[in-house]
């Protein structure tokens, strides 16, 4: 039986569970450190995040905060739990795309030839990653955001909903690109960037 434990009984967790179900997981269990959380979209919450080690299952972290996601995924891997890749059947990936453990690619997303996606990433609904991009570990490419060709995104960076990054640019690690921002120049200093063109605000 294909059995998956999901850490994070949230809205994001609902989407991850739906992808897992579409990939043939027959049993889905949630783990969450919040009090009083009994179920998530009809699936049972059976314990806290640390309790996953008492269950025979694969495990994935469905938490938006990249640093928390990284910490928990590293604990799963260190504890010997297999962390799968989840790809919605209605996502489109070129055959040569590589995807790291714990990454979730959602419905309508497109990842084009020559691109690499790191560990623990989120390629969200209808986002696109064009050819020869390199997405480092624990990056979130939000709903409807678009990366042109040969873009590099550093680890733990969040590309906000509807943001656009022009071709041949680099966005360094630990950045937040605001919703609807347009990145026209490489970003070499971590921080929060918003606007058209994107500019640093903090």
Strand order of the largest sheet: 6-9-12-15-18-21-23-24
Q: Give a short account of the largest sheet.
A: 8 strands, mixed
Let me know the average pLDDT: 96
Order of helices and strands: EHEEEEHEEEEEEEEEEEEEEEEEEE
Helix content: 10-25%
Oligomer: single chain
* Strand fraction: 25-35%
What is the number of beta strands?
A: 24
User: Termini distance?
Assistant: 48 Å
The DSSP helix count reads 2
Global geometry = globular
Radius of gyration, CA atoms, in whole angstroms? 17 Å
Class by alpha and beta content = alpha/beta
Q: List unreliable stretches of 5+ residues.
A: none
Give keywords.
single chain, 202 residues, alpha/beta, 8-stranded mixed beta sheet, 6-stranded parallel beta sheet, 24 strands, 12% helix, Acetyltransferase
What does this structure look like?
- The protein has 202 residues and is α/β, with parallel strands linked by helices.
- Helices cover 12% and strands 30% of the residues.
- It contains 2 helices and 24 strands.
- The chain has helices at residues 11-22, 66-78; strands at 3-7, 27-31, 39-40, 43-47, 58-61, 86-87, 92-93, 98-99, 104-105, 110-111, 116-117, 122-123, 128-129, 134-135, 140-141, 146-147, 152-153, 158-159, 164-165, 170-171, 176-177, 182-183, 192-194, 199-200.
- The strands form 4 sheets. The protein has an 8-stranded mixed beta sheet with strand order 6-9-12-15-18-21-23-24, covered by helices on one side. Strands 7-10-13-16-19-22 form a 6-stranded parallel beta sheet, with no helix packed on it.
- The longest helix has 13 residues, at 66-78.
- The chain is globular, with a radius of gyration of 17 Å.
- The mean pLDDT is 96.
């Amino acid at each position: 039986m294909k059995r998956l434990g999901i850490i994070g009984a949230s809205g994001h967790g609902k989407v991850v569970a739906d992808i897992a179900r579409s990939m043939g997981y027959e049993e889905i269990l949630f783990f969450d450190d919040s009090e009083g959380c009994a179920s998530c979209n009809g699936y049972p919450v059976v314990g806290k995040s640390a309790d996953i080690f008492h269950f025979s299952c694969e495990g994935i972290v469905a938490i938006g905060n990249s640093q928390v996601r990284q910490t928990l995924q590293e604990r799963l891997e260190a504890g010997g739990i297999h962390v799968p890749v989840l790809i919605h059947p209605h996502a489109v990936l070129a055959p040569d795309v590589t995807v790291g453990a714990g990454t979730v690619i959602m419905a309508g997303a497109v990842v084009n030839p020559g691109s690499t996606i790191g560990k623990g990433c989120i390629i969200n609904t209808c986002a696109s990653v064009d050819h020869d991009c390199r997405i480092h570990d624990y990056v979130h490419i939000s709903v409807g955001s678009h990366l042109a060709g040969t873009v590099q995104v550093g680890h733990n960076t969040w590309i906000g909903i509807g943001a656009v990054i022009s071709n041949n640019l680099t966005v360094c690690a630990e950045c937040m690109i605001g919703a609807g921002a347009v990145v026209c120049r490489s970003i070499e200093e971590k921080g929060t960037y918003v606007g058209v063109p994107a500019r640093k605000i903090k």
